[in-house]
Design goal:
Elements lengths: L2 H6 L20 H14 L38 H114 L1
């Protein structure tokens, strides 16, 4: 009996305890993804390494130090020489294209940086102008407050001086009246004694 027929000939008690799904060779992308996720979730405590994407992949390799296809001065053009020439030309064009793209990227980055610096300088200038305006306005408001307080203090001082003067004048008048009254009462009292 062959091994394939032995596998099919196993009885129920000899069959493995875990039933496996039938093997499908042409999986849809959804089925393939499901299969991969199921495989990952079987070992949930095992860390999964997700590779990072390369930032930029250099197109051309480093130039070689040796040249394999050297032709002598007396050699004629063979049947494969055109293909060698074409491959060399393609590599050279790819190298020139890569250099052009790199210089273009550098130029664009430099122009972008210059624009950003100009914009930042303009914004800083505008911010500084607005800040100075705010500070001048605040300073004026503070000066107005202090001037108003001083004026109020002066008017209070003047008002209190006036009140003090009026009070003194009133007091002096009262004192004079009291003195006159005292003199009158003294005179009346002395006049009564005379009678």
């Amino acid at each position: 009996m062959s091994t394939a027929s032995k596998k099919h000939a196993l009885s129920d008690d000899e069959s493995p305890s875990v039933e496996r799904a039938p093997i499908k060779h042409h999986l849809t992308p959804l089925e393939l993804q499901k299969k991969q996720l199921d495989k990952l979730l079987e070992k949930i405590d095992k860390p999964v390494k997700i590779p990072e994407r390369p930032v930029s992949k250099p197109f051309n390799r480093e130039p070689k130090d040796y040249v394999k296809n050297i032709q002598g001065s007396s050699a004629g053009a063979g049947s494969g020489d055109f293909h060698v020439y074409r491959a060399g030309r393609r590599r050279e064009y790819a190298r020139l294209k890569q250099m052009d793209e790199e210089s273009k990227e550098e130029r664009e980055q430099r122009e972008y940086d210059e624009r950003m610096q100009a914009k930042k300088a303009e914004d800083d200038e505008k911010t500084e102008k607005n800040r100075s305006k705010r500070q001048r306005r605040k300073q004026r408001a503070n000066n107005n407050k202090t001037n108003k307080k001083r004026a109020d203090a002066r008017s209070d001082d003047e008002g209190s001086d006036k009140e003090d003067k009026e009070y003194k004048e009133d007091k002096d008048e009262k004192d004079e009246k009291v003195e006159k009254d005292d003199k009158r009462s003294d005179q009346e009292g002395s006049g009564k004694e005379d009678h």
